[in-house]
Every structure is written in structure tokens, then in C-alpha cells.
Design goal:
The chain has helices at 18-29, 41-55, 69-83, 106-134, 155-175, 193-206, 210-219, 229-240, and strands at 9-12, 33-38, 59-63, 88-91, 137-142, 180-187, 251-254. It has a seven-stranded parallel β-sheet with strand order 3-2-1-4-5-6-7, with helices on both faces. By secondary structure, it is α/β, with parallel strands linked by helices. The relative contact order is 0.15. Helices cover 49% and strands 14% of the residues. The mean pLDDT is 97. The chain has one domain (9-190, 228-254): 3-Layer(aba) Sandwich (Rossmann fold). The chain binds nicotinamide-adenine-dinucleotide. Nicotinamide-adenine-dinucleotide binds next to helix 1 and helix 6.
Length: 263
């Protein structure tokens, strides 16, 4: 299947490692040029080099703290001056810290909103005019299965990702006639550093081993295993493609069957 991504430009947020990196790798393999970002320069530049060496696509790596609007503005300026416009936007950033409601300060809630909601709004605001002018665009938000089945101990994530989902569904309707699709992909438990750190936190707070924490997650999936970032990236890449032109306003899980609901 030709996905029609060759020569398109994709901005993949938070892409030095984990799910964002896997998506960047896959889009590049399909021939899309990339703008990638993360906070720390060395791993970001290393990711950019590795992707370019493997695929030959153009990769611009811009150090960015997605919770800082000024950084996001600089990221977009660089993207525009290097590529002119962004065809595909993948919003993504680090997950908020775990812990029950009473463990989080007012500031922790503000940070989660800044990082996991406002960064989506700021990135989207910046790419929309170009997509509208081109009459084509793909916006894909990396959210979480927590949107459909909240995960105990992740109250910040459960709450803020629901806001992203409401935003995306409404935006999808607003821009559908402009040839722009807006979708969310909901990862289930997928093998990244985020999951390693959540397992370490569960081990510390619940007195079980890290391995037992992983076993608990595995047992919640009918497949009995944790997902691979490449399995997640495959769906995101399809949604980013020309071939996904009639899919918009939806949230799709990549979770090995974790979500128990019918729809
Ligand atoms: P990860 O921790 O492995 O990678 C996160 C990436 O985000 C890194 O590249 C990091 O440098 C970057 N980052 C973090 N904060 C940033 C900031 N303020 N500005 C710029 N870059 C920043 O995490 P992951 O597993 O790839 O998760 C990606 C997203 O998906 C997170 O929001 C996570 O909560 C969510 N998620 C992950 C899973 C999973 O099982 N891995 C499940 C559900 C949801």
C-alpha cells in the first residue's frame, strides 16, 4: 500500500525516545521529512542523525520544552523557515507524574494542563493556517487508553487527556471541510522509559517488584504482553497518510485488547 507520505513534512513532538521516536522512525521510513523535538539536546540530535542515516529524509531537530509557549513558538518558526509548512502534526509529550489526588498540588495540576493540554493547543494553533491553505492536513494526538478506562494512580493523566479528546473531537468537525483530519491514538501499556518509571513508582509505593508490576499490566491484556512502540507507530503512520482520508474525530486504542468497553 502506498501511504502517500513521500515528501510530506511531519512535526513529531517529544520524539527523542519512546512512542514519539517510534512514530518519527516510521514516518521517515515512508519518506516524510521530519521536525523532531525534545528538551535535551544530545539525545535529540542523536535521534535526528540516526533517522537521517537510516532513511535519508531531511530531519530538523529543535530543542524544545513543550510546556513553554515561547519554546513552541520558536519550534514552529524553525519548522516553517526550513520546510514552509507542516502537513502532519503528531502531538505528544511526557506523561504527568503518578499519585492520588491528595498528593498533587495546585501547581502540579497547572503543570499537567500546561504540558499535556496547552502544548496540544499551541502546536495545533501554529499548524492550522498552513494546513488550511494547503487544503490538506493530519493532526494526531497521542493520548492514552485512560481516556476510555481511567487508570488508578494516574489522576492527572486521566483528567487532562479527557480534555484533549474533547478538544480534538470538536476541532475535527471545525476543520473537516478543509481536508484536515484530527484523530487521537490511545496507547495501552507499551515498552518505553515512561512505563519503566511507572513500574519503579509502583514498586516503591506498593512494595512489589518491578517485574511484578509489569506482570500485573500483562495480565490486564488478553494478549498477556506489553506492546512494542513499533506496533503503536504503525497505526499513527496510517492515520497520517493519504489513505486515512475518511477517518476523523476518533480515538483508536493500540492496547492488545486492554479496554473492556464495547465501543
Ligand atoms: P517516554 O517518557 O518514553 O518519552 C517521552 C518523550 O517526551 C521523551 O522524548 C522526552 O524527552 C519528551 N518530553 C518529556 N517532557 C517534555 C517536554 N516538556 N517538552 C518536550 N519533550 C518532552 O514516554 P512514552 O511512553 O513515549 O509516552 C509518550 C506519551 O504517551 C506520554 O504522554 C505518556 O504518558 C503517554 N502514554 C504512554 C503509555 C506507555 O505505556 N508508554 C501509555 C499510555 C499513555
Amino acid at each position: 500500500m502506498d501511504l502517500g507520505l513521500k515528501g510530506k513534512t511531519a512535526l513529531v513532538a517529544a520524539s527523542s525516545r519512546g512512542l514519539g521516536r517510534a512514530v518519527a522512525d516510521e514516518l521517515a521510513r515512508e519518506g516524510a521529512n521530519l521536525v523532531i523535538c525534545a528538551r535535551t539536546v544530545a539525545p535529540l540530535e542523536e535521534a535526528g542523525r540516526a533517522i537521517h542515516d537510516e532513511t535519508g529524509v531531511e530531519v530538523v531537530a529543535v530543542p524544545t520544552d513543550l510546556s513553554k509557549p515561547a519554546d513552541v513558538a520558536r519550534l514552529m518558526e524553525t519548522a516553517e523557515s526550513d520546510f514552509g509548512k507542516i502537513d502532519v502534526l503528531i502531538t505528544n509529550t511526557g506523561g504527568p507524574p503518578p499519585g492520588p489526588f491528595e498528593s498533587h498540588s495546585v501547581e502540579a495540576w497547572s503543570t499537567a494542563v500546561e504540558q499535556n493540554l496547552n502544548s496540544v493547543l499551541n502546536l495545533t494553533r501554529a499548524v492550522l493556517p498552513g494546513m488550511k491553505k494547503a487544503g490538506w492536513g493530519r493532526i494526531i494526538n497521542i493520548t492514552s487508553v485512560a481516556v476510555k478506562q481511567p487508570i488508578d494512580g494516574l489522576i492527572l493523566s486521566n483528567a487532562v487527556r479527557a480534555a484533549v479528546t474533547g478538544f480534538a473531537k470538536t476541532l475535527a468537525n471545525e476543520v473537516a471541510a478543509d481536508g484536515i483530519t484530527v484523530n487521537n491514538v490511545m496507547p495501552g501499556f507499551t515498552k518505553t522509559e515512561r512505563l519503566d518509571s511507572l513500574a519503579a513508582n509502583i514498586s516503591e509505593t506498593q512494595g512489589i517488584t518491578v517485574e511484578e508490576a509489569f506482570d500485573r499490566w500483562k495480565s490486564q491484556s488478553p494478549m498477556g504482553r506489553i506492546g512494542e512502540p513499533t506496533e503503536f507507530a504503525a497505526l499513527v503512520t496510517f492515520l497520517a497518510s493519504e489513505r486515512a482520508s475518511y477517518i476523523t474525530g476518533t480515538s483508536i486504542p493500540v492496547d492488545g485488547g486492554f479496554i473492556q468497553a464495547l465501543l
